[in-house]
Amino acid sequence: MTTANTLQLTGEMIIGGEAVLGTAGDVRAVDPATGAALEPAFGLATEAQTELAATLASAAFDAYRATAPEDRARFLERAADNIEALGDELVERAVAETGLPEARIRGERARTTGQLRLFAAVLREGSWQGARIDPPLPDRQPTPRADIRQRKVPLGPVLVFGASNFPLAFSTAGGDTASALAAGCPVIVKAHNAHPGTSILVGCAVAQAAEESGLPRGTFSVILGRGNSVGQTLAAHPAIKAVAFTGSRAGGLALAATAAARREPIPVYAEMSSTNPVVLLPGALASGAHDVAAGFVGSLTQHAGQYCTNPGLTFVPEGAAGDAFVTSAAAELAAQRGQTMLTAGISAAYTAGSERLEGEAGVDVVARGTNGDGPNTPAPLLAATSPEAFGANPRLAEEVFGSAGLLVRYADTEQLTRLLEGLEGQLTATVQLDASDAADLAAARGLLPVLERKVGRILLNGWPTGVEVGHAMVHGGPFPATSDSRTTSVGSLAVERFLRPVAYQNVPEALLPEAIRDANPLGIPRRIDGKLQLPAPAEVTPPHAEITPPHAEITPPHAEVTQPNAEITPPNAEVTQPNAEITPEDPAA
Description:
Elements: E1 13-15, E2 18-20, E3 26-27, E4 42-43, H1 47-65, H2 69-85, H3 87-98, H4 102-125, E5 132-134, E6 148-154, E7 158-161, H5 175-183, E8 187-190, H6 196-212, E9 220-223, H7 229-236, E10 242-246, H8 249-261, E11 268-271, E12 278-280, H9 282-286, H10 289-301, E13 313-317, H11 320-334, H12 344-359, E14 363-368, E15 381-385, H13 387-392, E16 404-410, H14 413-421, E17 426-432, H15 438-454, E18 455-460, E19 499-505, E20 526-528, E21 531-533
Helix pairs in contact: 2-4, 2-6, 3-4, 3-6, 4-5, 7-8, 10-11, 14-15
Pfam families: Aldedh
Region (Disordered): 536-589
Protein name: Aldehyde dehydrogenase (NADP(+))
């Protein structure tokens, strides 16, 4: 097989670790900054090739799920090493295919390899196995208790859809792939047609790591296909046991419908749509309206606003402090120039969405930036409306993917609470407050229960366009932010999506999996008779640093915004339909 160090893009995809040329047509990436088509053309998978990928993944499952956690950890680390070994070739290709700045791509590469190494550390630590032991109670009355033990096992092959706007961190070797592979599930990646070269370069690095690790042939594949045919075919295939998707609401719902209609329904973890409300409390603005406005505009416009955590909806108090914020935000936004968007289709969808927003009854334009110099660089937009108009028109709460924000003025905390109660589920909610202001603290205390019902992550005095990769992060939320609010697509908890519990009753020690044997040979944390027991020092696997990707190379465009991970958030705009493989008419295709 071609290795990551010698790879030349030939238009082939990767099925079961081997380069395969699709023969169902082809697709070329287009540089959105110039409009130029990029070489080579990539062949698209036929039905037979799609079937082969699924068959190989199914055949590999038993052998791959049986690999030791340490072996899977080393595989993930090899994949990270191989991605880094691609060097500037990967960076240059990703910049050309997405129009994103080089610093952003380098930061995203660091995040991607850091995620892989994080899940290697998770595998070694062992609590992901969920080991529990209820010892037998033979003398219990009126009935004895059997010996019952539990651990978690992988679901099976997982279908991962690459996102349009995160060519590395939410694509071929992104968090969905890393967590599924860590769980012991083979992965088929449906690469996004907007960045096929980037996807195949990374895919080759992962496939090489699988080969170096001696893993079964079908452990990992990356395929390309036109429209929704390949993605829907795989989602319906009996070999696939779970789907991970980052994209539009329409795309996520289409996949969920396909999965639910199967003879054996499967989970779909779809991240879809969010406007990420921001609440500005009076005290925060009284002590720094200009700074808050500068931070807000920096978050709204960073990298053309192409984040699912973009702050698209902001609640501003009436009164002098709110007026000062609006004035400062208008001046900040008017000074912004349009930045290159990911594709011509996404740019056109943003333009249509922003025009729709400003044309709604009761909406006024507060400020508009200017178009950039090149193609696909539409101007940022800031609009405003009244709470009455907002409450009467659900279209005003819809996401516009890009640098478009809507301000809603509110009279008091009671009205603000009603407005928040009317929102759909969101990925994030942000509250800007003055922690020394008793009124702000009281208002925030009352809002927190509402926000807990509505969102997956609550921020105070920050901005949502930054998602740390760690153990406590939640990147998810109630519908339509995601299709399953009980989990996350970022952080170590993401592995739980691809596991299920199995209980073992009265199973002899010789037949038990290592994780739940009496001697605890893996040296992992376990819950014995309801009490958490940590491994003795001698049992602990030698420590491996949990590597969090460096962010020093990331330079946010606004110095006022302190966003160590600001580039790392996958946008999901229903308007833009970034996952063209689900919705054929999508202009982002």
